[in-house]
Structure formats: C-alpha cells, structure tokens
C-alpha cells in the first residue's frame, strides 16, 4: 500500500478530473438491504467474461495521471477472485485504492477469512457502511470485527451512515466499541444522503424538489465509473450503469485502450461540458430548453437527464448546447482547466 487516504483526500480526488475512477466490480451482494440504490442482489451479475474484465483493469491501470481507484458494487468482497486480482494490479501500478463494503465478510467472533486478510493490506482506505438497513444482514459484532480487521491491516477507515435519525451517533458508538474513545486515530465518519434509486426509490421520500436555476454545476464529472463487463459512464451515478437514465451517458469498453477513449469521449460531450461548467440552470437559458427551466428536480442528476431528453428530440436545443459546450471547452483549455 502506498499510503492511507483520508476522507478529504478521497473527496478531492473525485472532484479533480483524471485523478480517480470507480470500478463497479459486481452486481452481487449477500446482504440484501431494502434501501439499495443499485438493487444489488445475491444472484446479481458478476464477472463472467474474464477477458473483458482484465481489459477493463488494464485500461484503468494505463490511464495517464490517475492517482486512485475506488471499487464498489454490489458488495466488492462477494468477488473472491476478481477483487484480489484488481487490487493487486492497481497496487502493482502504484495506484491508491478505496473499497466500499458492508463488512459482511468479517467473523462475529473476530478476524476475517485468509483471502480477505491478504487483500486488505493493499487497500489504502476502506469505507464501511452501516445503518438500520445494513444491520439487518451485518450484526454489530460482525461490523466491529470488520473495523478491527481493517485497522490491523493498516488501511484507513471511513464509516458511512445515512444522514437520518441517529446515523452519526450509531456510527460513533460502533467505532467506540471497536477502538475506544481514541478511535479518531484510525477512522472518520461520513453522513450520506439517502438515494432514491434502485430499491431505495420505494423507501425514501422526496425531500425537496429544486428549480434548474437552483442546481449547481456537477462537480463529479471528473470521477467516471467502469463496470466489470465494460460499461462506462462519465460520473459516479451508479443508477446510470445499471441501465437507468440517458443511453448517451453509457458506452461499451472492449479493450484496454477503449477505457481512455471512452473517458475522452465523455470529456468532449458538449452537454456534459455544460453540466460541469454552468449546470442545469445554465442549460435552461439556452434556446429549446424551456422545459428544463420549468421543471423541478431532486438533484443535478435529474436536471442533467432531463437536458439529455430535450437535446435528443429538439434540433434547436442540440445546436445551442453544441455552441455553448464548444465555447466553454475552449475557455477551459485557454485557462488551463481542460
């Protein structure tokens, strides 16, 4: 392992174009949380075509300027062959790795399987998620065991909890049980907004709808995602990679060089340039996008998806966004941000 990444460092990398990428390694998860934003299941899709998967990993390794690779799913540790392979390849390339997990793999009486103990020391940071839904499949004792196994391996820990109810207090209580009151030496906590995607769409209520003008530009278009089967998307919205949203935001990777080509294509997409620079509010002021300005959306993703729907059917809107996207791209290149 090169070094541990703090929560702030992982967030900075996600917002810096070219520094990080997410590998969506599986659709499988044995926990079965009712609020799963990607609808991962015990019988979900997994690595079957190893030629494609190796090409995806090789393509990620070869990306110029890349610093870190995040690995999510599904439950990454459900892939007992693919996860060690990918982490080993990234570590050999000097890349920092971040893995998101429920900790289901830990033993309630302490410790972890041998294969997990071998892979953990290669991981820079482990995000362990806990909340009332996860706890239905991962007991408190198992979660504490996972915390201790990650700490003993030398990885940094971020405990994620839903920004609802007693999420923060429950996360801190588990850390205190695992490490005592000085748990801050090894771990941090992070509250996350409930996502109304996947099974979560039927669990969480809409908190608030926003006008397009109120939605900021997307700050996470520098953090693309590639799935184990070669599907690539330009951002972190895993609902896209599981088949939701505009088809224009998904492309297929079939060889190592295709990974860089896919990401380059996303960076050249005029509407994505607009979303990353001026957001839905800026797009809503363009000719042909009147319906965008009249809409209400949960978040920037909703505004982005609506903008693609409009540009696909309105030649006026498509021309306007190409013109603005080209102008913004030229400005970014001139200022050194391209």
Give me a quick take on this structure.
This protein has helices at residues 7-14, 50-61, 82-92, 114-119, 140-153, 167-179, 238-241, 256-267, 270-277, 279-284, 290-294, 300-313, 315-335, and strands at residues 20-24, 68-72, 96-101, 125-129, 156-162, 187-192, 210-211, 225-227, 231-233, 251-252, 296-297.
Describe this structure in words.
This protein has 338 residues and is an alpha/beta fold. Helix content is 40%, strand content 14%. It is built from 13 helices and 11 strands. It has helices spanning 7-14, 50-61, 82-92, 114-119, 140-153, 167-179, 238-241, 256-267, 270-277, 279-284, 290-294, 300-313, 315-335, and strands at residues 20-24, 68-72, 96-101, 125-129, 156-162, 187-192, 210-211, 225-227, 231-233, 251-252, 296-297. It has a 9-stranded mixed beta sheet with strand order 6-5-4-3-2-1-8-9-10, sandwiched between helices. Strand 8 (225-227) and strand 9 form a beta hairpin. The radius of gyration is 20 Å and the shape is globular. The two termini are 31 Å apart.
Give the end-to-end Cα distance, rounded to a whole number of Å.
31 Å
Biggest beta sheet summary: 9 strands, mixed
Strand order of the largest sheet: 6-5-4-3-2-1-8-9-10
What's the assembly state of these chains? single chain
Number of helices: 13
Radius of gyration, CA atoms, in whole angstroms: 20 Å
Question: Which key terms come to mind for this protein?
Answer:
338 residues; alpha/beta; 13 helices; globular
């Amino acid at each position: 392992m090169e070094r541990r990444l703090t929560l702030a460092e992982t967030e900075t990398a996600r917002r810096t174009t070219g520094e990080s990428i997410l590998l969506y390694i599986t659709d499988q998860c044995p926990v079965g949380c009712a609020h799963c934003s990607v609808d991962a299941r015990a019988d979900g899709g997994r690595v079957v075509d190893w030629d494609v998967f190796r090409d995806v990993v090789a393509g990620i390794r070869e990306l110029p300027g890349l610093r870190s690779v995040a690995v999510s799913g599904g439950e990454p540790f459900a892939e007992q062959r693919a996860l060690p392979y990918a982490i080993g390849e990234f570590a050999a390339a000097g890349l920092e790795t971040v893995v998101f997990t429920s900790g289901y793999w830990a033993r309630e009486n302490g410790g972890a399987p041998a294969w997990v103990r071998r892979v953990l020391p290669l991981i820079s940071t482990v995000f362990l998620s806990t909340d009332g839904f996860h706890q239905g499949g991962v007991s408190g004792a198992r979660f504490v065991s996972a915390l201790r196994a990650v700490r003993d391996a030398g990885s940094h820990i971020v405990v994620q909890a839903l920004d609802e109810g007693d999420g923060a207090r429950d996360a801190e209580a588990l850390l205190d049980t695992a490490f005592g009151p000085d748990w801050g030496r090894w771990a941090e906590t992070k509250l996350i907004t409930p996502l109304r995607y996947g099974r979560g769409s039927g669990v969480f209520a809409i908190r608030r709808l926003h006008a397009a003008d109120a939605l900021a530009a997307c700050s996470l278009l520098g953090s693309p995602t590639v799935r184990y089967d070669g599907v690539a998307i330009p951002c972190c919205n895993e609902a896209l990679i599981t088949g939701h949203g505009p088809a224009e935001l998904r492309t297929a990777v079939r060889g190592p060089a295709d990974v860089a080509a896919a990401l380059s294509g996303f960076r050249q997409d005029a509407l994505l340039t607009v979303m990353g620079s001026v957001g839905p509010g800026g797009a809503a002021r363009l000719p042909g996008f009147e319906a965008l300005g009249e809409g209400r959306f949960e978040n920037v993703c909703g505004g982005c998806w609506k903008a693609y729907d409009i540009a696909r059917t309105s030649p006026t809107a498509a021309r306007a966004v190409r013109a603005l996207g080209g102008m913004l791209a030229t400005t970014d290149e001139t200022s050194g941000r391209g």
